[in-house]
Amino acid sequence: KGRREAEQSREFELAAKNAPAQPDVHFGLGYLYWKAKRYDDAAREFAAELSNNPKQAQAMVYFGDVQMKAAQAADAIATLKKAVELEKGSVLAHLDLGVLYQQDTKDDLAVAEFRKAIEADAGSYDAHYRVARLVKGLGRRAGAGGSGWGRGVWRDGEGRGGGRGDAGGGPVRRMGETSPFGGSCSRSVAPT
User: Fold this and answer.
1) Which of 68, 73, 83, 94 is least surrounded by CB atoms within 10 angstroms?
2) What whole-number distance in Å separates Cα of residue 49 and Cα of residue 35?
3) What is residue 124's predicted lDDT score, i.e. its pLDDT?
4) Within 13 Å, how many C-alpha atoms sit on residue 184's CB side?
5) How high does pLDDT run on average in the chain?
6) Dist CA 191 CA 58 (whole Å)
7) Who contacts 57 (Cβ-Cβ below 8 Å, separation ≥6)?
8) Chain centre to alpha carbon of residue 93
């Protein structure tokens, strides 16, 4: 697998060098860097893609994700909001916005973003899990009587998280995410 990804990276690097204005070439290379956790390189490629095509929603979503990972919360929120304007059903954008709002203790906004992720993909483990954890945390913060906030917020499947992880500031898990270059996926990430 690593060998194939290295070969893909080399080919995308050559494509970007030889035809830097070609649609999606920088996005493809940026995505490979993102998967390899080479976030500085990924950010550079996503920015180049957006320079070529400012309406490339997927590049914007992943660029916002990289900004979030680099603790550039204000920039990430602005980028992700623009991405959502272009692609309202972006599960990744809504999850990242929810995480950013949650980190800033804007719980109402966080739950709203997680709900939008659920609307876009009802099977999104991450969104359901994060809402459950957030509602649980809100009840604890409000004292033994709870805030009342959690009543009616959760629809079905409460507690599916199984106690793994924590919604408070950990990395966004993307269970079942596949490459934008093919394979089954619960959300559209294929290059346009």
Assistant:
1) 73
2) 17
3) 80
4) 2
5) 74
6) 8
7) 83, 86, 87, 90
8) 5
Q: Which band of pLDDT confidence, cut at 50, 70 and 90, is reported for residue 31?
A: very high
Q: Which residues contact 92 (CB under 8 A, 6 or more apart)?
A: 61, 62, 65, 172, 174, 187, 189
Tokens describing residue 46: 């996503």
Q: How far apart are CA 22 and CA 27, in angstroms?
A: 10
Instruction: Please report the sign of the dihedral spanned by the C-alpha atoms of residue 159, residue 92, residue 83, residue 186.
Output: negative
Q: Is 167 a residue whose pLDDT tops 50?
A: no
Check whether 3 has a pLDDT greater than 70. yes
Q: Are residues 136 and 129 in contact, defined by beta-carbon separation less than 8 angstroms?
A: no
pTM: 0.67
